[in-house]
Predict the 3D structure of the following.
Amino acid sequence: MRYTARSKSIVWKDDALTQAAVACLASILKDGTPWTFQGRLEAGMGLVCNNVLHDRSAFSDSPARRRLLYRARYYERISG
């Protein structure tokens, strides 16, 4: 199972190794690393990337500005 920052509807295995991994990933998402990139998509923007760790930041949706998200899955990684 890939990592998720969800805190509801997920139960992690209750062993030391799994709990340490979850804590490490939570720290990376919270504190960042030298390789962490943060950005906020504005209207009309897009992002093409490999599957990366991401948090679950809130977004605002209104009748005038609806969130639209397309996802595509490819068999080969983006390289170069």
Notes: Residues 20 and 29 are 14 Å apart (CA to CA).
